[in-house]
């Protein structure tokens, strides 16, 4: 993986993923990277179905960039979940025709739950929306933090 310099701006719309155990949260930016919209989460199954679902979203929204949350530990180390995210990001980089980035996602689920509760959602609604709200936070952080963008190499 390579650090992308701050002068390079990823093309929009940008699609973001939060890789949960059972579902994958999804969010998309507009073509100017001004607004972010939560999308329905995707049920996590096998790689072939995941690639098909993400490819359909990329085509449907004309996404030009893919961002995947990198679940680092609080101290910045990479555990099993981060290794899985890294492997999936390499698979996407090999399979898709758009650039793929990893974005640090520490504490996004906690922030997403708090934000949704503060917005008045019930606990059941929070549980249903948390993965895609996390993806929206990952996308927001990616768009706002140029120096931390990690471009994924297909190799």
Summarize the structure in short.
With 155 residues, this protein is of the alpha/beta class. 41% of the residues lie in helices and 23% in strands. Mean pLDDT is 90; it is low at 1-7.
Descriptive notes:
The protein is an alpha/beta fold. The chain has a single domain, classed as YqgF/RNase H-like domain (Nucleotidyltransferase, domain 5, 2-Layer Sandwich), CATH 3.30.420.140. The chain contains four helices and seven strands; from the N terminus they run E-E-E-E-H-E-H-E-H-H-E. The longest helix has 22 residues, at 123-144. The radius of gyration is 14 Å and the shape is globular. The relative contact order is 0.24. Residues 1-7 have low confidence and may be disordered.
CATH superfamily heading: YqgF/RNase H-like domain
Name the strands of the widest sheet in spatial order.
1-7-6-5-2-3-4
CATH architectural name: 2-Layer Sandwich
Could you estimate the helical fraction of the residues in percent? 40-55%
| pLDDT averaged residue by residue | 90
Element-level helix/strand string: EEEEHEHEHHE
CATH class membership: Alpha Beta
Kindly report the CATH topology: Nucleotidyltransferase, domain 5
Strand content: 15-25%
From the N-terminal CA to the C-terminal CA, the straight-line distance is: 9 Å
Q: Give the uncertain stretches in residue-range form.
A: 1-7
What is the tally of beta strands? Answer: 7
Structural class: alpha/beta
Q: How does the major sheet shape up?
A: 7 strands, mixed
In total, how many domains does the architecture comprise? 1
Indicate the overall shape: globular
Which radius of gyration do the C-alpha atoms yield?
Answer: 14 Å
**Helical element count?**
4
